[in-house]
Prior knowledge:
Blueprint lengths: L22 H30 L6 H14 L11 H10 L14 H10 L7 H44 L2 H7 L5 H17 L4 H16 L9 H16 L3 H29 L28 H14 L4 E4 L2 E4 L5 H9 L2 H16 L4 H19 L12 H10 L8 H21 L32 H11 L5 E4 L26 E6 H5 L3 H8 L2 E6 L3 E6 L1
Parallel strand pairs: 3-4
Antiparallel strand pairs: 1-2, 4-6, 5-6
Helix pairs in contact: 1-5, 2-3, 2-4, 3-5, 5-6, 5-7, 5-15, 7-8, 7-9, 7-14, 8-10, 9-10, 13-14, 13-15, 13-16, 14-15
Amino acid sequence: MSLLTSRPASPAETPPAALPTTARGRRRWLYALVVVALLAEMAIAMITTAVEQSPTIDEPVYAGTAVVYLQQHSLRYNPEHPPLGKLVIATGLAFAGVHLDPAFGGDQTQLGRHVLYESGQDAGRLLLLLLARLPVIVLTLLFGLVVFAFARDLTGPAGGLVALALYAFSPDVIAHGSLATLDVPVAGFLVTTAWLLWRARRRPAVYAPLAGLALGAAVATKMSALAAVPVLLLLVVLSVRRAYGPHWTNWLRGVAAAVSVALLAVAVVWASYLVVDPQLRWVTPPGVPPFRGLRALAAWLPFPEPYLAGMRIQFGLEDQVWTTFLFGTQHVGSLWYYLPAALLVKTPLGALALWAAGAALLPALPHLRPAAAYVLLPTAVLLAAAMTGSRDLGVRYAVFAPMFLAIAAAGVIELRRRWATVVVAGLVLCTAASSLRTYPYYLPYANEAFGGPTATHLHLHDSNVDWGQDLSRLAARLRQEHPGERVWLVYKGSGVPSYYGIKAADPLAVPPAEVHGLLAVSDSAVAKADARLAALIGTSTPIDEVGHAITLYRRP
């Protein structure tokens, strides 16, 4: 028999002293070692990335808000996102020794800059940012165990390893799991909810309440999780009915369980606000748009007033017209197919093949068919909701896909054919090789079919490529290879170039004829260059790139 299916020898068959040295015992240790190695590889990749990258655009706002939560217990900053994800970030910043000026009265962008660049010594800035990122890194690793356990429940130990490997080598999960942002936490909590509901098919009294807590954590982290609530509550009903039998009374029991799960989720949302401010002091900021049309129904949701105000802000952002950059062309407004296209670019080819095969096999194989509702249905609903959004800013809006689809991919193991095992192993190795090749530049990753990370900026922009993360790398490159040169900088991000020792001028603030020397331009700015910047770039010679996110040009 194989490592994964053999029956352990009984104590009567094997002397107790010999049990630890049996083949099965050694194989169990080897299996555990592989799990640890995959998580260790992922941890190293994320920590290295976290240390080397400067703040991305959203991080200073979340870090600054987390500090306000800790020191002032105020909800006034960043109301467009619920508090839980920022409370997670705060667990790291609690050890940072940040001193926030009590008289500070700027907006949330200014708050982030104040916390990261003005609240301590320069030597402590890197540590402060790392402390903000570490809790999300830990959470990302824990979600890896959830993906592993979910797939193992469905397809056995081999499937668990396949899913964990795809998760651990996912460039998108590594990239966003190493940042103090909310995208990976909300996705991970949703995957955890689905897994707990799958387990509730056998023990609903234990796992349904835990699923309610996980669902509440997702909704209390980011409002985009609300799209998954109806389908997850439906899964509660199905799980309870499966556990207790097909009698019609068990459908009623399932509905009662779904109500209980929903109430638990609402309680978690309220708790996340009350942890910040037990008195729930809140004044709606000026300019928050009202609910209109069908959106007015959201006002009836049983959430705190700050949460509802955040929903109104999000609706206002969705009503704005955003520009999109896809496959070298800039578009005004969103594209419904943007996220699938971006995932096609930014997912390793081996993973894409396994995702597709797993998504096809999960509903096709009779013994896996029930799992399709728990793995594929939430993925489809979340992706459909994200595709209707107006902000085509990156695959981070669909980072749940590499998590759920890694679990689906494990289903290929269930073909029970030797060739299938060989093919799965080969595709996992291809995924790992592609991921390792991009180290440590995970944010601008693109697969080999689209030219790799050096060509990502030709197809996508913003958080797919250049989210402001490479100021520190730019500073090092300028010191090492261009000391003393005149530098002009067009930077898209929230970092402060001067704090990294970058002495640069704005080329758009002077006549083009005065711009000579070295021109550094964020690739997101290149993608959306106006006529003036495009003219400067067109009359310059590209000579280098930094982190696949900033291009250096020589000006005559």
